[in-house]
Amino acid sequence: MNPEYSCAIGVVGAEGRELSELDQYLFNKKGIHAVAINIEKITGMRITPHIYTSFGDLDRLLEGLNDFVRS
């Protein structure tokens, strides 16, 4: 139950943009690997931070998502 050792699963995307674009952007610009999901009613990039993911890594992800949406 320690927040320092918690993890989560999230699905994100950008309306009007292809998942492959987001995947390439995050990997090429921020060094972040994510997985595109398009099954049944779930479409987006799966983001799965783990206990080894630092707050700095999460900040880099959010920065990358914001930069992508603005580009």
List the helices and strands and how they pair.
Blueprint: E1 10-12, H1 19-30, E2 35-39, E3 42-47, H2 55-70
Antiparallel strand pairs: 1-3, 2-3
Helix pairs in contact: 1-2
Radius of gyration: 13 Å
Q: Strands of the biggest beta sheet: in what spatial order? A: 1-3-2
Count of DSSP H/I helices: 2
Mean pLDDT over the residues: 87
Summarize the main sheet. 3 strands, antiparallel
N-to-C order of helices and strands = EHEEH
Q: Share of helix among residues?
A: 25-40%
Strand content range: 15-25%
- Which structural category fits the helices and strands? alpha+beta
Q: How many strand segments?
A: 3
Please give a structural write-up.
This protein has helices spanning 19-30, 55-70; strands at residues 10-12, 35-39, 42-47. The chain is an alpha+beta fold. Helix 1 crosses helix 2 (55-70).
Q: Outline of this structure?
A:
The protein is of the alpha+beta class and 71 residues long. It has helices spanning 19-30, 55-70, and strands at residues 10-12, 35-39, 42-47.
Keyphrases for this structure?
39% helix, 2 helices, 3-stranded antiparallel sheet, globular, 71 residues, alpha+beta
